Amino acid sequence: MRDVNYNFGYLDERTKRMIRRAILKAVAIPGYQVPFGSREMPLPYGWGTGGIQVTASVIGPNDVLKVIDQGADDTVNAVNIRRFFQRTTGVTTTQRTADATLIQTRHRIPETPLTERQTIIYQVPVPEPLQRLEPRELETRRMHALAEYGLMHVKLYEDIARYGHVAATYDYPVMVNGRYLMAPSPIPKFDNPKMSMNPALQLFGAGREKRIYAVPPYTKVESLAFDDHPFEVQRWTAACALCGSRSSFLDEIVTDDRGGRMFVCSDTDYCGSRQSGKEEAA
Amino acid sequence: MYVAVKGGERAIQNSYELIAEARRGDPAHAELTLDQIKQQMRLAVDRVMTEGSVYDADLAALALKQAAGDIAEAVFLLRAFRATLPRFGYTEPLDTSRMRLWRRVSATFKDLPGGQILGPTYDYTQRLLDFSLSEPASSAVAAESGDGKAEPVPGVLSLIEQEGLIEPQEPAAGDPDPTDLTREPLRFPAARPVRLQNLARGDEGFLLAMGYSTQRGYSHTHPFAGEIRFGVLEVEIVPEELGFAVPIGEIALTECQMVNQFAGSAIEPPKFTRGYGLAFGHCERKAMAMALVDRALRAGELGESAEAPAQKQEFVLSHSDSLEASGFVQHLKLPHYVDFQSELELVRKMRARR
After folding, report:
1. 0.95 exceeded by the pTM?
2. In chain A, which residues have their Cβ closer than 8 Å to the Cβ of B344?
């Protein structure tokens, strides 16, 4: 199964050691972005190279791997990354959240709650939450060092002044362990509450920007808000057209060219197991 | 319908077959060989070696063939190949004055020791499409003096260095080992050896545009092409068990020494300063653009104001790499259903409130 022309997990062992050291530092300082010697991977930057390097450094032969993109196991890039690890590690892969020990994800946290025996690895395009407000890294590093996050609070305040609410729907900034401002990666803000006090280890890899950060198990993660404008997540008036869920994140599917729409779960494993559960009950 | 996103595995497999077919083209025509690419597309090979940071013409030719001639894709293939290669050792510093020259020109002195050698250049050709090339030639061209000049030719700038009119070119105090950008992340502020590594790997088009901007008022650095040389040089390493240097092969290099004005400061008299460019093979445009950008990036250490994009190291060094730029720009074609759904909901909410 495994392609023996490549080292287990593709990366050489010295590179893995360097990345594991960065991960350990990241776990020790929750939310802090640790620079690391990101390698050029055989997939393009921006397509999950950070997540892939983190996964490649922590994966072992007994791990069970799940890879999702937009909540789904069968989107093309998720398929490609899963095939990459099948080829270079030969580990068992799964689509079932509950069966996985490692979950590499882009843009979603599964609906099924994670457990202490699981690690979730996020692919991160832009690790610096302040980058769109201040592109100079020398400046943003100073802000993190001083925990000086006024710039972000002013941005949120201006949103409220202009629109009546915060105009951020994904990659919504969070404070980790009451200390570091962190980009949760472009997950919908719907998923932000799942990050807090999560029993699983959460690792974040940004290959192009060469940063790794982490949220250790049972760490407080707060979405930024004001007392009079509390944080809220998205709600739908519809239920999932396939499984009937009213509590999951729904994707809008265009069904025809006359304005026809249906809403279905973005998490394909969650939706699928609810559907098969219903069939069994019937 | 919802099934539209299913079947990714089979779709990917089909796309592999389609790209292989498209790469090969009409099988009625002979397939390209790597030797043909190496021999007849040498400038493309040189560019891929330079930006791919691997001196290996065979691998660069293979990358070009696999990428169907797409330079950025070929650079990507080569970089991904090199990423996990072990380091056997580091070479001794190269002394480019010992280069066996194929080409050497200076725009600052009419005549100089070693002379001006035009060598293989398009510079003085008339860019008229040569229709005779549309069919294979019946006989090979034999040029006079195609081989490199054997004796060492000192760099042009050493001539004015003796007078103290140009800053000397010396290693930093203590001659520390340079950071290896392929092993360690780029950190700011970046010292000049790190900046030069980044520029050497940087995309030629990007550097060309940044260099060009310095000639159009966005940080004017008054450049003169002090010297451009292209030739081959022996590469040496010192194996630990031997303790002395042994040559391991030859590489072709293009070097550009740009001379720039410096008005002087309270503590220093006016003198010329340098911008430096170096590339594998024959990459003159790249080496010259690199030298312009190198000089512009030295604004801070020379006490000049740094207002223009080419003078800002975070701007230049963070955006010079074609892999990073191409990957992140093109990742926009990956699915963004979830983010877009969130934005749809937000826009509807904002419109409902009006």
Report:
1. no
2. 252
